[in-house]
Input
Amino acid sequence: MRGKVSRRTVFAFIGPAVIGLAMVGIAPLLYAGWTSLHFFNLTKLRRVKFIGLDNYESVLTDPVFWEAMGRTFALLGTALPLQIVFGLGIALVLHQPRLSLLKTLTRLSLVLPMATTYAVVGLLGQVMFNQKFGVVNQLLGGVNVNWIGDPNNAFIMIIFWDVWQWTPFVALVLLAGLTMVPVEIEEAARLETRKWWTVLRYVQFPYLVPGLVAILILRTADTLKLFDMVFTLTRGGPGSSTEFISLMIQRVGFRGFDQGLASAQAIILLIITIVLAQLYIRAFYKEV
Amino acid sequence: MYVNLFSMEETMKRIQVLASAAVAATLATGALADSHAWSLKRAAEPYAGTTIDVVFLLRPGYEAIEAMLPAFEEETGIKVNIIKHPYENALGEQVRDFVAGGDLDIALIDLVWIGNFAENEWILPIEEFTSNPDLVDPDLDIDDFFPLVLNAFGGWNGVVYGLPFDNYSGLLFYNNCMLEAAGFDGPPATWQELKDVYGPALTKDGKYAFALQSKRNETQSADSFARVIWPFGGSFLDENFRSNLLSEESQAGLKFRQDLMQYMPDGIVAYDHAETVNAFAQGDVAMITEWSAFYSTVVSPDTSKVADCVAIAPEPTGPAGRKPALGGFSLAVASQADDDEKAASWLFIQWATSKANAGEYLQRGGVPARHSAYADPALVETFKFIPALVESWQDGVPEFRPRFAEWPEITEIVQEWGSKIMLGEVSTEEGARILGERMEAVLEEAGYYSGDKPLAQ
Output
């Protein structure tokens, strides 16, 4: 039975949430938009002035910005497929019948990497990948690989940590998708074919698509704002080899104190994130 | 070569004259005729119960003063609230506090921040306090500070804002045992000798002759990039504030660094102070050029395997002479503090940098900037870095890194392109060209080329 609800009641229920969201989300965004249109350097506040789209022009024509963006997408393009492959493999194993105790323990252990604070992961990495006394080189047979001081190795190290931390998330989301497949349909499919690939492609995959889209959106957004782990591990170095876009924005805004330019960079990043999210939804989600 | 509007000597004289005059004028008023009457306890009486906030770093000099602090608090009743930050966070935290009108009552100022802090009027000239006979210690003795240090760390445009507190000069720390084993009876006198003679002889069996901390932060700018351009006659800027990094001398310094890297550990571009000092303390590196503040770390058996082998010399000379790295911090009263906090802050700064406390500060791991602290021959025996330090403070360059307000932006550019040069991603010429263009863009925006701002550091 549906009764008429007054506007006042509706506002009383959703108003606080809307106001809260506006204060913590919308207002800072609007302020960033305002800042991005000004020369706004924290150490030169007497010279704040409206400069129109100059900051945006500076960002869009700055090769360093695009290099950082390219580096970020290189990380995304490398780490995300690995996470999906490994995550799907883990999910398929955990979806098998039997071994229920082992599966329960595995599920619990999958949560640990995700529960580890990003910054702590970076600090752990500093120790584990230390060239001289790090456990990684010892596990590799006492090799003398310079992980943190070599640009290529440092990038590989970041990929490793990202995959380590987020593969479990992908696995759990995909496992949830697999459990959505009706048992009778899956059993019928397995009677029709013994090829696991065929079952996966035509029976299970459609149920995985919503989860995959969520993974794509969330991991893309996460990678674009990846900061803590890299900051504590390499601080963007050596050189610029691990300076991803969020580190660059932090550097410009909080070490160079150019809040106007950093705001313009952040807003461009936000636009790119929104566009990518829309593309993912349009490209994949309609198949469900 | 960089030429300031005022010669270094002239600037130092002006600062000393102004500061001394302020103190002298106070004394001349007769208000302090009975100077024995002044005591810290009496001066602090009106401010007992006041709490002052200050940022400290996680370094030996700060631990030293923190250990001495109970005596100050007991005598004055002033509570000092210390907020600790690693160096990399200290500037940002203070800038945000001053912009927001926060709680900090004392500014901790790296020498490259002084122009920024002074131009924004976040700090007060010491004259505001030295002119008050109730607050000025008759034994303040401004002239006792090393002029170079007082000028570089606490002075800006002829006005003294801060008193030198945590004071460094670059020194050559060397492992005498490794050098003797390789047939050397002393450290290299020149950078060229370090590279051409000591480098090949000491780089073997997994050990390296030298490590130059070059991580992409202020370390890259101050400890690595600047360290190689000045001794070779180079500089960041010329007399017109245009980039001087493509000059023959600057290029010689940058190319020297590239050549020297063959005698440094792999991944030196990822070495910060901690890694460099640790490599030396573990006996993996024979020589480092580091701040005097790390002396206590490398000579303590608790933190150094080579404590008994450590010897210290001034940094090697280059074709342009000895131009050692200069760095350090002063303490200044923040303008945002209220009147009681300002007075209490001044009393703390005056006490922390006083002649009377310099000896204990030194004993506890700090490095005072007072002549008188180093006059005792017994101290020279105990602290082996003293002769080299005193010598370095005679030859230093105040503009080792430009001290103007634009340095935070410029250092980011130096860090980025200095690292790229070291990694071989660009040549020294290409890197210097791009770096120079970007540096000039910042200076143009600031108004140096249009005449809006004087060409002063």
Remarks:
- The domain at 54-287 of chain A is CATH 1.10.3720.10 (MetI-like fold).
- Chain A is about 75% helix and 0% strand.
- The mean pLDDT of chain A is 91.
- The radius of gyration of chain A is 23 Å.
